[in-house]
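2024-03-11 09:14:02 INFO queue: dequeued item YdbS-like PH domain-containing protein, len=499
2024-03-11 09:14:02 INFO validating residues
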Amino acid sequence: MSAEWRELDRRAVPVAVVFMSGVAVAAGVPTLIGLSGISTAVAVGWTLPGAVFVVLAGTVAEWLRHRFTRYRVGADRVELHTGALIRTRRSLQRDRIRTVDVTADPLLRVFGLVSVRIGTGEHAEKGTVRLRPVTRATGDELRRILLHRAASEPVAENTLAVLDPAWIRYAPLSFVAPALGVAALGGVLNLADWVGQAGGVIDWAIDLLGGLGLIGALAVLAGVAAVVGAIGALGLWVEMWRGYRLDREPGGTLRVRRGLLTTRSISIEEDRLRGVDVVEPLGARLAGAARVDAVASGMAKGVEHDKAQHSTLLPPAPKEVADRVAAAVLREEVSPTEAVHLAPHPIAARGRRVRWALAAVLAAELPLIVLGLLLTDVLLHIAWITALAAVPVAVVLALDAYRSLGHGTVGGYLVMRSGSVRRSTAALQRRGIIGWTVRQSVFQRRAGLANVWATTAAGAGAYAIRDVDTGVGLDVADAAVPGLLAPFLETGFPDTADA
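2024-03-11 09:14:37 INFO prediction written
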């Protein structure tokens, strides 16, 4: 690629026209409906000029952005100059570039364009250059040349995983499904409120469900929300993971491609990989499934709308598939998360989890109890009914969380497992651990427990061995990275508590 200054694709302006037209329609239709009760002429007179202004303002802003934006890729740096009134100049050293992600939403795909995000893994803005839009060929060229590294030995390209359509069965088991169901019911009420029919919808629901009683009505609403949420989760899964494949490319780069309407291409250099995290959300775990996340330096943090998926190498899939992919990614015959023998944690850790679970139930029920005493007995009945169901569930989850606790070392990896609703088994390269943090609350210190955090310049930044016996945790840390904790083991830790 030439080191000359280049501009973004000229079709940025037509893209802006189409996008702002959609925004104007989305904002104008509810406004038009709301004002039509007064007068149709008045509604059109207020809505149409506003819509035209929105389209023109957005188009002019995009034209100015295109007019004053230039970028170039030199031998040592990637530079971006942009801004009409306030000029912004950004420069990234090529040897610090860690990610080049290529995405294309439906509108960009119609025009044959993509958006390129070049990142160093540092600050969300200062360490990022965004080029939107450029042609797909330009995006692929940028990804290829900016992530090219001279490999110590040739690496053949091979496919580590491809999408199995049967994996879609795990989509309704995620916590996204109930959230989508509740959001759908709220959306119906909002839409009814826009057209002035919110009272009518509520009266219709009361007439329809009134004969079922309070518990029956709640059960029916929960069932409807569950069905709608499951359908929404299936659609979201198809949008996110259609066309998924995980490849190892020449030069030592892992590349994930996925997406139906919005396509995404995410690249991770193997030199930046510090381990994997096998994540088992509760629903997927009950169905024998897990997903695989990369623990790598330089990944995007807090800037992507689907941040939870940005580091995902494999969507929820059968556990044996997840173990195989984790092993292939780490170039091991057997995944460390599968090969390790995890040491159990003290019984005191179980008591802590049960107490926290019961405290969470009490915190959720307390507002209902207080309002019930002040306002109506109905809330008191809701409180004891929900508590009757929540306490056993909370205790079971707490006991499961205790059984999930474990840690161990195998080969060059430290493996840590914890969690129930979201069980995580992280295999962290011991050479990637750069520090340790030992934390004890007052109650942990009395029970002889501690959280021992392994600090790394990758992934979440720190991974914890939770509620481990203090002496055992320090011994594990010292054995995992010999010498790093030696000064503290010799002099002892200060008698302080970090609550």
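2024-03-11 09:14:37 INFO annotate: Residues 302-308 have pLDDT under 50 and may be disordered.
2024-03-11 09:14:38 INFO item closed
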